[in-house]
Structure formats: structure tokens, C-alpha cells
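The authors assume throughout that readers already know how a fold can be written as C-alpha cells. For illustration, here is how one protein appears when written out as sequence plus C-alpha cells.
>
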Amino acid sequence: MLKMKYINYFILHIIFFVLFINIVKSQKTIVLSGTIYDQNPKYNPNFEPNYGKLTKNLVKSVLNPVTRVPELNSLNPLATTNRDGRMIKPELFQYFFSPNNNASSPGYNIPIPINLTLDFNSDSGTYTYSNQNFFPIDYQGFDVDPSKRLYKDEQHKYHNYHFCLKINSNFLFKGGEMFKFVGDDDFFVFIDNKLVIDLGGLHLAESASVNLNSLGLTKGNVYPIDFFYCERHTTKSTIRFDTNILITCNYYDYCGICNGDGTSCCNAQTTCNDNNPCTTDKCPSPTTKIFSPIPNYCIHTPLELSLPSDNICFTKQCNSTTGKIDSFPITCLDLSNNCLKSKGCNSTTGCQYESTCNNACQVKNQCNNGTCVVKSSDYCAKELDGDSADICSVYSCDSSQGGCIKQEKCQQSSNKCLVHSCDSSNGNCLVENVPKPNSNDSCEVSICDPVTGLYSSSPLQCPDRSNECLTLIASCKAFTGECFEIEIPGDQCDCGCEIKNKCMRSHCTREGKCSPLLREEIDDGNTCTDDYCDPCTGLITHATASKCLNCNSC
């Protein structure tokens, strides 16, 4: 497959070469189209200075592939090449081969289209253009005005001695091509964007040539070729070049110039002037298809849009009367509905805003119709513990503590005698008393201090005896904590009854009533005696009972 591709390429090259030979044999002339930029010493002092000399290295050796216009090696007027090459104002060299339509600025020039016809020389097989009086734009450009026709030759005949010629083109390299030149003043040839003929400066006719085989070109490839010629001084203008290069064009601009830029027939300030001071007028692009007068295709850009904006905080508006640009500060949008407030305008980045939701308890970048979204308990639980929220904790947000916080659900109260805890199975709070120190003695009274949580203990105080004549003491049962009374024997009771019979003793019933009883010692327990007590004195006597006077009865 690859071999067949190479064979096809070879056949195509042979066909093209045969066609090229036939074209060369039949083509008697070649017409090169280009642009002449009419110059005037009034606007560009690099024309008609004192005589100079041939100066090599005046321009850079590589052509700018975008502009396809040569550039000086130095913009310093004191540089040796600029002094020798008579570049009085190096900064104006840029207008040798580029349009400057501003009549009020240095370097002002007038583009004029031109065609050069090269005749075929069958003996040498080359095309030649030769003109020893090369004055192609006499009475044109600036010299349309008779007052501008100031420069004359040695016979005092007027000519236009101040112009530069630019031809941008292409060619198919087939091998064996050459190019020769003889003339004055500046002449530069670039092939494949490289300087191959360098005859810069003000000089008499000089010659140079180039053999394209020495340039390392590849046969069958198309390369750019660019010619630049200037006439800068009286009193001669000569040009001749010979070549067998078959020059072609990528395109013709609407002025009919090969690879032209349209400036040879369109002047932005005159052709495209719409008399509106608030527009920037521009010629159409070179490849525009023109079917009616050129002004119909001109581009008119509002002036405020064509100027660079160094501060986007201001809008530019052109004053239609003065043509000046007025600046007005922009109004930044009200984004309060998005919880944003304006911080003013930055000249580079525009309106600046900051969030009003900058509290630690507000969700970042979340706004609900102008109101910042507050961190809820669920949000805080998620933020602090993820998916493992603690049911015995309460989640909340406190901006004074830096945001979300986590607290125990069952908080201890101010009463330190109570213990609060949480049931981890259901999250319910439990409340218990602080355990007593002597919990087994119910007759020990323990009181908890709610401030300290400490117990103070004392014995249980049972109530006073219900009847001092009945009970000896009131006491407490340790296991039950119940108070009880111990009865006092009756003969030990003195309830204060007034007993006149001294043979009786005081006695109280359970109801607390006096019920005197005989003194127990009156009865000596002997059945053979009669016991007697004197109620007045209380004297007790015991006499033998009559039944016991008979001894047998005893």
C-alpha cells in the first residue's frame, strides 16, 4: 500500500513537471502585481536624506510570516547600519511597505496598485523586467498636486523619486531556479521567509543573485517569495531582474493585487469615511468579493468598542458632536436576593461581591430568597458526627463558640442531690437521688444539701410519749423506722391523783384516768393473817385470822 502511494506521488510530480514545461514554453509574459507606497520627505525624512551607501544587515534576516513586511535590526538612529543606510527616523521604516492613511501623522503614505510585466527570453529561459528609468507613479499619489512636484533629474525633468514597492507571492519549487537583480536603492528578496538578497541603503545600481538550489528547498513544495524595493533619492531610478521562477498567487485582493491587502485601492480615511466621528472606519478584508462600490463593504466599528478598555468599571460612550469618548461608572447589580452585598468595582475584574452569610451558624453559600440558611440541629449533628449522631446529645449552633456544638441531653440541675442520666437505648432522661451514706438504718435521718450534694445525718426524733403514766420511753425500729412506746409498770406511775386514803396508790388507766388501786404490800400473801391498813396513816398491820386460832385449822 505504501509503495503504491509513492508511485502515485511520483506520477503526479511527472505530470505537473510536464504541464509546467508546457506552460513555460507557451507563456510569453508573467505579470507581477504589487503595491507601491508613495512617500514624501515631508512625512518621512528617510526619503531624500544625504547620500549613503550600500548597507547590508539593515533588516532582519527572517521575515515576519504574518505581516510579510521586513523589520529593521535596530530602531536606534545611531546604530551603524541605520547611519550607513540613512535611516534618519528608524521608527518610520514600518511605513515603507505598510499603509499609513493618517495624513496628520509621520509616515503618511499613499498606496497605489501596480503591475510589472516580465518578458520571456527563450535563449536564457528566463523572464526579465528591465527599466533604467523606473518612475511608475509620476503625477500620481502626492504628486497629483503640482505643488508637490519638487524633485527633478539632471535634465531638470520632474519625476517621483520617493516610493517603495512590495510584491508578496508564491512559487512551486521544481529545482534549478535562479533570481538576479540590478538596481537602486534598497532591494530585499525573501524566499521561504529568509533573506536571500540584501541590498539595503542609498546607493547606485548594485547587483546580486541567488541560486535556489542552495537554499535547501524541497522539490514539489510551494514557498512564499517576497520582493521589496525602494527609490529614496534623486536623481536616478534603475531596476532589472531576471528569473526563471514561475510565480503564482494564493489570492488576488479586490484591487487585483497578488496576495494584496486591499490598501492599493482602499483608504480607510477617505474611501471608508462615513463622516461619523464615533466610528472607526476600516477597509474590507483583502479577499472580500466586491460587486459594488468599495464603500458599501467598509467596516464601521463604534469607537467605544474599538478602543481598549483599561477599566471595566466604566462604560464608554462616544459624544457624537465631539467624537470624544466619555466614561460613565457602571451600576453593579443588586444581588441581595442571593445574600450578596457589593464591595465596589475592580478595574480589571469588575463588580465585586461578598456573602452576607458569614456568621459561623449560617450555612456557607446557601441563601433562601435573600435570607441566609441557618445551621439546624440536624445539620450540626451531621457536621459533627456524620451518620453516627448521639441520641443522648443535643446539637445546636452557637456563633460565640465558633459554630456547631454538642451538649449532653440530660443536663445536671442546680440541685446536686439529684443525679441526671440518659438511657442510651431510647434517649430518655432519668433522675435519681444521690445515695444516702447509712441506707440500712431507717432510724437515722439523712438530709442532702442541694448546694453541695452532701448528706448530714441525725437520729429519728420520735414524737413525745402519749401518756407519761403509761410509757417509759418512745423509741424507733431500725429496719422499719417506726416509733413505738414501752409501758411503765403501774406501781411506778404517779399520775398526780389526789388520794386521801393512804392505803391506795395512784394508778392511771390507758385512757389517762385516775383509778387508784390498793397498795400491793398490804397483802402479805399469808392466808392465816388478816391484813389491815389505816387509811389515814397508811399503817399496815397483820393479825392472826380467827379461823386460824384453832390449831387444827393451821
User: Anything to note?
Assistant: Residues 2-26 form the longest helix (25 residues).
